[in-house]
Write a structure and sequence with these properties.
153 residues, alpha+beta, 4-stranded antiparallel sheet, 5 helices, 31% helix, elongated
Length: 153
């Protein structure tokens, strides 16, 4: 199964109680179709006593089963909590997104989009040279005006 097809067959389940484990999640979603995998991401902090981060993923064999699970289980109650069930989104690539550990201009995608061609650089230098020949004082040449505003005809 391709990654795109796997993603369509995977649902996100949020708002889970700490008592929920992979077996409970499997039992809750089994009526909607054959389940390939159930995962409950562990907390990132090693000192955390929580068994999971409050959400999980259920991957079905068939994308239609995932849609059926979303339609029937979203906003339902599991272990006394209302759960959110939605299509799983792809994991963000930390090298291409803001908030990563690298500067945005170090990524190839940003450079390709924002790089300045040599022709543009020369045109900018030329425009800069022309502006240097203009006087520095923006008020120069206004000495003869006595009244502000439009002149009567």
């Amino acid at each position: 199964m391709t990654d795109a097809a796997r993603l369509k067959a995977t649902v996100y389940v949020g708002g889970l109680e700490n008592a929920v484990n992979e077996r409970v999640l499997t039992d809750a979603f089994l009526p909607f179709g054959e389940i390939v995998e159930v995962s409950l991401p562990k907390p990132e902090a090693p000192s955390s006593s929580d068994p999971h981060r409050g959400f999980g993923y259920v991957e079905f064999e068939v994308p239609a089963d995932a849609k059926e699970a979303i339609d029937n289980m979203d906003q339902s109650e599991l272990f006394g909590r209302v759960i959110k069930v939605a299509v799983a989104k792809p994991q963000k690539d930390s090298t291409e997104q803001l908030g990563g550990k690298r500067a945005v201009w170090e990524s190839e995608g940003w450079l390709a989009k924002h790089a300045v061609s040599e022709e543009d650089r020369r045109a900018a230098e030329q425009a800069g040279n022309e502006s240097e020949s203009r006087p520095d004082d923006p008020m120069q040449g206004l000495e003869g005006l006595d009244v502000a505003g439009p002149q009567p005809a």
